[in-house]
Amino acid sequence: MSDMTKSGILNALKKTDDDKLNKNLLTLNTIKDFKVSGNNLDLTISLPISQSELSDKLKNKIITVLKSEFNTLDKVELNLQGKVTAHQDSKKDALLPGVKNTIAVASGKGGVGKSTVAVNLAVALAKDGASVGLIDADIYGPSIPLMLGIKEKPKVYQDKTTMKMIPLENYGVKVISIGFLVDDNAPVIWRGPMASGAVKQFMTDVEWGELDYLIFDMPPGTGDIQLTLVQTVPLTGAVIVTTPQEVSLIDARKALKMFTRVNVPVLGVVENMSYFIAPDTGKKYDIFGTGGGSSLANELNVPFLGGMPIDSRIRVGGDKGVPIVYDAPNSEYEKVIIDISRNFGKQVEIRNINPESKVEILLDDDDK
Ligand SMILES: Nc1ncnc2c1ncn2[C@@H]1O[C@H](COP(=O)(O)OP(=O)(O)O)[C@@H](O)[C@H]1O
Ligand SMILES: [Mg+2]
Question: Would the pLDDT of 189 be above 90?
């Protein structure tokens, strides 16, 4: 039996039987944190595999190996994290050196749940162990502070040479919002250069530190301002949010095409308000029709990341500042959102591992 030290634990991990786990890449640094109290072990490890490949099966295998290696162990509380791959891009590295991936959450129309999806995606990724930042770039309707229950203003850090804003943090997500800086009651008339100037400052003048994902909640639509923003932010990719109705799908298609024209990969489509589950009977109803998001994704040859149900708890949670993925553990909602976030993580990884794998989006002739 080895000692329950860092290197003892590392030796045990190396005995885990799983082909996903490249044992040559396990180092002492893999073990982020461990605490022994009596016969219980609290262990956090960061494995050199992607977030989306972490599974309960792998977790159980590791626990089994640990228990057989340390036979006095009774209970193992294991927090598994995966390493997120980084998007290689010189423009991004210059602006955001500590940020591995930059993601736009966009929609053709407002009110489809873009911010709701951005917030829940961010919180779900953080729950899975990723470090996540969120920039509320929706200059027309900054709603992230409310949705994440943040009321303070960001502090400023200053020394002789630099001055940086410190992002606020809740549910493991670092946040900066245009809403922190403008008065709710004083409407701002944004022109394209002002908006992109503000968003640029959110990238360069904020102390983001090391992040796996920096998510941008974009203003809805496909006009000049959106186009300027998309070209200001060096993006790894975009996620398009739509509802199943035709009116929303038409605009989602426009958003998709906007990203394609400026060579930003679309990582996938999320359909919000996909269905409703009756709380009394558990029966599923397709209120706005069915499968619009997935058939759009199919038709344009982009991944479908999943559908989020419509539920009053999602709206109430948004207003209370408690994201549903946090508020309803072990629920259908949590599961659906975690699945979407893992599908998303997988798409980021596919792009990063093989940047040439750009999928050809199928545009109509009159769109080109
Ligand atoms: N799946 C859902 N179920 C119930 N309410 C939702 C859902 N998605 C969004 N909402 C509500 O709809 C409104 C608009 O959503 P929001 O995320 O602000 O949209 P957008 O950012 O696209 O304008 C908000 O009040 C939000 O709480
Ligand atoms: Mg919004």
Answer: no
Contact 353, 59 (CB under 8 A): no
Integer Cα distance of 153 and 332 in angstroms: 34
Which residue's CA is minimally distant from atom 26 of ligand 1?
A: 315
Residue 368 in this model has a pLDDT that exceeds 80? no
Provide the pairing of β-strand 132-136 with 163-166: unpaired
Plot region of 221 (φ>0 → left; ψ -120 to 50 → alpha; else → beta): left
Crossing angle of helices 332-353/114-127, nearest 10°?
80
pLDDT at 55: 85
Query: Around Cβ 251, how many Cβ atoms within 10 Å?
Result: 20
Q: Which of 217, 244, 238, 246 is nearest to 308 (CA)?
A: 244
> What confidence tier does 159 reach under pLDDT thresholds 50, 70, 90?
confident
Q: What is the pLDDT of residue 359?
A: 54
- Pick the ligand that lies closest to the CA of residue 322: 1
Q: How far apart are CA 177 and CA 199, in angstroms?
A: 9
Catalogue the long-range contacts made by 178-185 (C-beta closer than 8 Å, 24 or more residues apart).
Answer: 178/136, 178/137, 178/138, 178/139, 178/142, 178/202, 179/136, 179/142, 179/143, 179/144, 179/145, 179/146, 180/145, 180/153, 180/154, 182/142
Q: Residues near 343 by Cβ (< 8 Å), separated by ≥ 6?
A: 52, 268, 303, 305, 306
Q: Note the pLDDT of residue 192.
A: 72
Q: Kindly tell me if the per-residue pLDDT of 145 is higher than 50.
A: yes
pLDDT value, residue 185: 63
- Which residues, judged by CB distance below 6 Å to any ligand atom, belong to the binding site of ligand 1? 107, 110-116, 141, 143, 220, 272-273, 308, 310-311, 314-315, 318
Residue 210 vs residue 183, higher pLDDT: 210
The model's pTM is 0.86
DSSP annotation of 179: G
Please tell me the distance from the alpha carbon of residue 188 to that of residue 202, in angstroms, as a whole number: 17
pLDDT at 50: 74
